[in-house]
Structures are given as structure tokens and as C-alpha cells.
Amino acid sequence: MRIAIGTILVTMVIDQASKWAVIDRLALDQRLFVPVFDPYLNFVMAWNTGINFGLFGSDSAVLRYALIVLALAICAGVWIWVRREGAGRWMQIGAGLLIGGALGNVIDRVRWGAVADFINMSCCGIRNPFAFNIADAAIFAGAVLLIVVSGRGSADRKDG
Fold it and tell me: How much is the mean pLDDT over the chain?
């Protein structure tokens, strides 16, 4: 499970470093919008107090801590599942991305009371109103990778 632990740590560091860069260095929390490659890629400050796309968003402390507990429970469940599977390299990477991303967002909720989302991508004349962060991308990539590689039997079992 060394690969999973390494992936978790790298994911969390990259996520938190990106948030430090855009919030503390670019002052995105004050500027609110920084064009990067407009209209395809922009930094837009969005404090997410809910789940994906701000769904169920609220300033309630109860919801904040419930989402922290839920994220930690999901991390524990994924960790136990992957460990029991005797996960190979790719399954460990998928779990590491998912868990590292979830923990990165937990750090935000503890630190700021909300998840810092800032990446906005649009294309082809369609303006995307939503923002995400590196942790969100890691969670998505990790989940997809786990779906693709889980259940492959012993073909991927090269523990590192």
C-alpha cells in the first residue's frame, strides 16, 4: 500500500499548494476572477459549502462537520476495500487519488469552513458556470480508475 500512501500525499500537497497559490499569492478570494486563457480556462473564486456543484450548500456548522465525517468515512471505506482486494499498482493509484482529493477538501472545510473551488473551464461557446479544484479532479480520476481496474483479478497485482 506504499503506492497508495505516496499518491495520497502527493495529491494532497498539489491540491493545497494550488489553493495557496491562487488564494494567498493571486489573492483570488479578493479579486474573484483572473483570466488565464479566456474563455477556455479562468480562475473564479467559489466557496463551496455543499457537495458537488454546491448542492445542499449551507453555512450550517452541522452540515460542515457532517460532510467532513462523511468524507472521512468514505476514505476509510475505500482504504479498507482496496487493502482487502490486495490491490495492485493501478488500484492503489486510483484509491490514492480519491482519498488524497477527499482529504484535501476536508482540510479546506476545517480551515475555511468551505471548499475552495477556483478552476473554471468553458468551451465551444458554452459558458460553464461551475468551478472545481485539483482535489475534485483527483477524486473523479481516482473513482474512474477504481471502476476501470477493480475486479480484474490478479492481472494488476504487483504490490509496491
Answer: 89
As a three-state string, the secondary structure of the chain is CHHHHHHHHHHHHHHHHHHHHHHHHCCHHHHCEEEEECCCEEEEEEEECCCHHHCCCCCCHHHHHHHHHHHHHHHHHHHHHHHHHCCCHHHHHHHHHHHHHHHHHHHHHHHHCCEEEEEEECECCECCCCCECHHHHHHHHHHHHHHHHCCCHHHHCCCC
Q: Which of 24, 108, 136, 156 is catalytic?
A: 136
Known catalytic residue: 117? yes
Exactly one of 15, 24, 38, 117 is catalytic; which is it? 117
pTM: 0.86
Q: Which three cell numbers stand for residue 76?
A: 476509510
Give tens-digit pLDDT for 24-64: 999 999 999 999 998 899 999 999 887 665 555 567 778 88
Task: Answer whether 131's CB lies under 8 Å from 23's CB.
Answer: no
Q: Is 108 a catalytic residue?
A: no
Q: Judge whether 146 and 91 are in contact, CB under 8 Å.
A: yes
